[in-house]
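quick one before i forget lol
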Amino acid sequence: MISIKSPDHLPWREIKEKREQTKALYSSIFKVPLIYGTKKSVIYNIARDMSGKVLDIGGGDRFVGEICNGFNNGIEYKSIDIDNSRFHDYYSFDDIKERFNAVFLLDVLEHVSLADGKLLMEKSYQLLDPDGKIIVTVPNNLHPTCFHTDCTHITSYRYHDLGGLLMTCGFKDIQIFRISAKKKFKHKLLALILRPILKFLDIDFATGILITAKKEIQ
């Protein structure tokens, strides 16, 4: 996990404004495109089209690095984490003196406060090259259980909340996806049959949310 100093306040008015802009793009969770696959398979499909330097914030077991190293496309992978029991390239943001073409922020934001989460997004923006991409995943809090089954989860994000927060940090070209690992035909059929009930109850069967966005070209 990552240790940072939180800001004293959050720009609530701007967050609300950007959240509504995101919601205008995706008026309900069922308007958000669905990707079937595991988190690793989804990241594999994203990373295979990448090149240049990438930073994995909260890198943990560095599985993103294993994926990146499997390609011959010139990816230079680096990770940052405060867990010094494992190897990471960085253990503090203060030590980073380079910029990156992409930043991964996978299943990290839900483990920190809202203020710390926004600061991580701002730091990601600062560390990106112009037109660089951020890739973020969080649990889908419209799924009945996936957020609440981990006692280390602190902050719950709806898809438009997270999109709005990224916009307040300066990111553009927000794209949001739902992720479901249950890709068998019977699961897809059941989801189709139950869709009216799920929509009425404001719940979703997809367990994850993936958001990609870009840094503005200065």
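fyi The longest helix spans residues 185-201.
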